[in-house]
Amino acid sequence: MPNPSRHALVVGSGVFGLAAAIALRHRGWSVSVIDRGSAPHVRASSTDLSKVIRMDYGHDDFYTDLAARAMAGWAEWNERFDRPLFHRDGFLLLSRSPMAPGGFEHDSMTALEARGEPVERLVGDEIHRRFPAWASGVHVDGYLSLNAGWAESGEAVRVMSEWATGLGVRRVDDTALEIGESESGPVVRCLGGQLDADLVVVAVGAWTPRLLPELAADLTPRAMPVVHILPQHPSDFMPERFPVWGADISRTGWYGFPAGPDGSIKIGHHGNGWADDPDTAERLPEGHEQRLRAFLSESLPGLADGRIVYERACFYCDARDGAFWIDQVPGRPGVVVATGGSGHGFKFGPVLGGLIADAAEGIPNQELSRFRWRPGAEPAHEHARARLDH
Fold this sequence. Notes:
This protein is an alpha+beta fold. The protein has helices at residues 15-26, 61-80, 104-114, 126-130, 153-166, 208-211, 249-252, 288-299, 349-361; strands at residues 3-11, 29-35, 51-53, 86-87, 91-95, 119-123, 141-145, 149-151, 170-173, 176-182, 185-190, 193-196, 199-202, 219-229, 244-247, 254-256, 265-269, 308-319, 325-328, 335-339. Helix 1 (15-26) packs across helix 9.
């Protein structure tokens, strides 16, 4: 039963917030989750059809190890859920030039091999023969990571919300306006009034700087373009012939997924994006479709003339150094921040809850040192090399 003497308010019902709510509830807290509407929020980064689940982080052993734990967690979640939501179809990383030490693809492959993870090197025309949707001669090197794939992100969040409800987590359909304090502890001021708690977890992604203005210099909402496009020949884009991929991603930003339920292919761009308001952004920037079609004409000709059936701005909560922020907020007793996904956070859903709960309860955890409160952090650790930075 919930312990009424320890009540936590979790603001946000994305993967960070729901993972925190579930973990805190398991530790005996009475928990409420505050968010507007049903989970997943239509504008949150945790929504959409799919997210990449991978362990490819160059030589960053910390994130590779954490991703390996998360991968095991996804397998456990598949057993818990009514049907599998993580699909282990592999992750294809391609390079336009021969892989060499110091390159993201090479360093990721060798790090996985050193761990004993199954990978298959692909060179030259072998890429097109194995995966015929890819044009011959454009990408000349790469590998397939077999212990990887994708998760049905929006559905996973919806199921996590049901899981939390089943544990006794209360849902508050409201919009948080401010994180404040009273004589008895932290408060959340919402449209519907003020809510008191012993603990407040702020897990609102791109909206974090609004609720915690002291983080505005270190966490920035950035919009990234995502489109769904219909192929000419859908059979070439089924998972066994077209796994999740990154196309020279650290130099181009392009990544994508196999065909979805409607036959369309989701393609995103993992780069700098653009500044916008996560509440109002509607359209992708001018010129994005032309850049996308130029890439497709060269690399995936079967998609070059495909019809775009959906597009959205996916909002990252970008940390300056690309690492998460999971820590108690200085000067705000009882307030914890859990955010900074920076475009790679969803895959860690199965391990996020324990990390956030440890931060909330002040339990020593060496992993949290990477996610500590760190104003003015210098950009770009090793793990951020998968992302186009120019």
